[in-house]
Design goal:
By secondary structure, the protein is α/β, with parallel strands linked by helices. It contains 14 helices and 9 strands. An 8-stranded mixed beta barrel has the order 1-2-4-5-6-7-8-9, surrounded by 4 helices. The N and C termini lie far apart (about 80 Å). The site of one magnesium ion has 4 residues, from loops. One magnesium ion binds next to strand 6. GO terms for molecular function: cyclic-guanylate-specific phosphodiesterase activity.
Length: about 280
């Protein structure tokens, strides 16, 4: 009896090992040490203004290269960080690092708008506005050069004090952008009620915009909507010159994507920030 009990225990332990649960616990443990280990870093992807034909901004994207786990993709570890609350410290680290880099570029004569992704969990409490203000002061960041990218799920989960948080961000002079526009629940009411400066059309609509008629209708309609609401519109995931031409013809304001540049470490982005560096590809 007892030997079969032991066998059962061993079997269960193995099963647990085979499930994702242990992996997630492991990831959580490693993630806890990530800031201290200096295994987090930021890469930056240029954002090109189609009217001015130059790079006017960069988006900071988090990378995690763990000693044990290797490189883990944000889409894998950010949900774990959100679930465990670790995203609060990680998010503050990202904000400070991105602001520091933007300040540095500005001092080098390369002022550039810095976009930072913000998770819903990160700013659930009111402290966030105060922390944001502190980071801006500490890093000597121009708040009007900072843009926070939030997702529709953020807006949705924040129905009660969402307005307050977003207004606090605006009071600091920081820009607000809706990320992955069109992929969550209806966003139209948020465009109406919240002080949004720009929206980013999700790459899932951009990818096949020339192949799928419905995507084309959605993209052109969203651009018109944004224009009429006096909100800037950015297309994400532009990978081909044909799509770029389409977006230019349809009066999109800004693009980012592999066609122009992959997310890169800061020293590799600097050349792209020099005036006129976007002309080659756009003309
Ligand atoms: P996102 O904010 O929508 O970022 C765009 C994602 O698309 C990035 O993936 C970027 O590398 C990728 N991308 C850019 N251009 C192209 C393209 O032309 N084609 C394709 N196929 N992909 C392109 P990444 O870096 O893996 O980040 C994934 C998501 O993870 C981000 O989506 C964002 O939601 C989240 N994330 C990344 N960094 C942070 C962060 O610091 N904080 C938070 N809260 N979330 C972050
Ligand atoms: Mg983003
Ligand atoms: Mg996006
Ligand atoms: Mg996305």
């Amino acid at each position: 009896h007892s030997s079969s009990g032991t066998e059962e225990l061993l079997k269960r332990a193995k099963q647990k090992n085979d499930t994702g649960q242990n992996k997630e616990e492991m990831m959580e443990g490693r993630l806890k040490q990530a800031i201290h280990n200096q295994s987090l870093s930021l890469v930056y992807q240029p954002q090109v203004d189609l009217h001015k034909e130059k790079v006017i901004g960069v988006e900071a994207l988090l990378r995690w290269n763990d000693e044990v786990l290797g490189c883990v993709a944000p889409l894998t570890f950010i949900p774990v960080a959100e679930k465990t609350g670790l995203i609060k410290d990680i998010g503050l680290w990202v904000l400070e690092e991105a602001c520091r880099q933007a300040s540095l570029w500005k001092k080098e004569g390369l002022p550039v708008r810095m976009s930072v992704n913000i998770s819903a969990v990160q700013c659930r409490d009111r402290e966030f506005i105060q922390q944001l203000g502190e980071i801006i002061r500490k890093t000597d960041m121009n708040p009007w050069l900072l843009s926070l990218e939030i997702t529709e799920s953020f807006l949705l989960s924040q129905l009660q004090n969402g307005q307050e948080v977003l207004e606090g961000i605006k009071e600091l002079g920081v820009h607000l952008s809706i990320d992955d526009f069109g992929t969550g629940y209806s966003t139209l009411s948020y465009l109406k009620n919240f002080p949004v400066d720009s929206l980013k059309i999700d790459q899932s609509f951009i990818r096949d915009v020339l192949i799928k008629e419905k995507d084309e209708v959605i993209v052109t309609s969203v651009i018109k909507l944004a224009r009429n609401m006096n909100v800037k519109v950015v297309a994400e995931g532009v990978e081909s010159s044909e799509v770029l031409t389409f977006l230019k013809e349809n009066d999109c304001d800004e693009v980012q994507g592999y066609l122009y540049c992959k997310p890169l470490p800061p020293h590799e982005v600097t050349p792209f920030l020099l005036d006129g560096s976007a002309r080659q590809i756009l003309s």
